[in-house]
């Protein structure tokens, strides 16, 4: 999961998942521009295992999250470092400059955040990219592929839909809830390897869920927090638990 290496950032000239655009418009007589990305809508699913009274989440490495942390660890602007290196080379000679360069590279690597900085806990989710399938059918497929539970579409309960990334994408995500049992587990999950997915299935005990949701040291999506709150507001009485939130 966290054996991440050979990281390289390059320009994105084309993508199957997003397309950048710039829109020009007038608002109250003022001419404006806004850059945005066109992306797929998506579904997410809060999965509750009634056999073990735990939530089923997924854990995976997110390059965008890692790069946000990576930027914080970058060294001073190249011009400033180049000047210092140049002075050192003039004073110590070419051989020492080469050694200093090796040390600088090693120091730079040591400043990089650990791969765990890009790992997040999330709801089972997937893109809405199959026109022939309903949202419920797509959600069912994601539960099976990512978490290994085979559940009928009829068991999926729609919670709500909302806009995510309104400043950048504005895509719509529809959230579902489904209850599963150990008997529904037909595989290990983990996503589709042929699509490059590497997903770890995680269980969060019901009685620890709210502490998990509010623990800022655990990187997670807003969907996890919102869905846990929804569960405690709507399903807690069924399971006779306290909602100390």
Beta-strand proportion: 25-35%
Number of helices: 7
Shape: globular
Q: How far do the termini sit from each other?
A: 32 Å
Let me know the largest β-sheet.
Answer: 7 strands, mixed
Low-pLDDT runs of 5+ residues are: none
If you average the pLDDT, what whole number results? 85
Using only CA atoms, what is the Rg? Answer: 23 Å
Number of strands: 9
SSE pattern: EEEEHHHEEHEEEHHH
Provide the structure class: alpha+beta
The percentage helix is 25-40%
Care to describe what's here?
With 245 residues, the chain is α+β, with helices and mostly antiparallel strands. The strands form two sheets. Strands 3, 4, 5, 6, 7, 8 and 9 form a seven-stranded mixed sheet that branches. A two-stranded antiparallel sheet has the order 1-2. The chain is globular. Helix content is 32%, strand content 28%. The chain has seven helices and nine strands.
SSE layout and pairing:
Blueprint: E1 18-27, E2 30-39, E3 42-49, E4 54-61, H1 63-72, H2 78-92, H3 94-110, E5 119-122, E6 124-127, H4 135-147, E7 157-164, E8 171-180, E9 200-205, H5 209-214, H6 222-234, H7 236-239
Parallel strand pairs: 3-8
Antiparallel strand pairs: 1-2, 3-4, 3-6, 4-5, 4-9, 7-8
Helix pairs in contact: 2-3
């Amino acid at each position: 999961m966290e054996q991440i290496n050979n990281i390289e950032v390059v320009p994105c000239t084309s993508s199957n998942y997003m397309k950048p655009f710039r829109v020009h418009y007038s608002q109250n007589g003022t001419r404006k521009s806004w850059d945005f990305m066109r992306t797929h809508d998506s579904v997410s699913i809060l999965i509750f295992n009634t056999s073990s009274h735990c939530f089923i989440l997924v854990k995976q490495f997110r390059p965008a999250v890692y790069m946000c942390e990576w930027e914080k660890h970058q060294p001073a602007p190249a011009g400033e470092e180049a000047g210092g290196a140049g002075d050192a080379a003039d004073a110590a000679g070419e051989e020492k400059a080469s050694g200093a360069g090796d040390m600088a590279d090693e120091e730079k690597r040591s400043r990089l955040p650990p791969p765990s900085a890009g790992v997040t806990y999330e709801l089972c989710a997937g893109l809405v990219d199959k026109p022939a399938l309903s949202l419920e059918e797509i959600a069912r497929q994601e539960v099976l592929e990512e978490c290994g539970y085979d559940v009928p579409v009829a068991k999926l309960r729609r919670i709500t839909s909302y806009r995510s990334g309104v400043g950048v994408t504005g895509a719509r995500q529809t959230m579902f809830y489904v209850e599963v049992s150990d008997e529904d587990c037909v595989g290990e999950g983990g996503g589709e390897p042929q699509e490059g997915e590497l997903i770890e299935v995680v269980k969060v005990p019901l009685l620890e869920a709210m502490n998990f949701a509010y623990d800022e040291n655990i990187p997670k999506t807003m969907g996890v927090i919102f869905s846990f709150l929804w569960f405690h507001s709507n399903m807690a009485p069924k399971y006779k638990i306290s909602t100390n939130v």
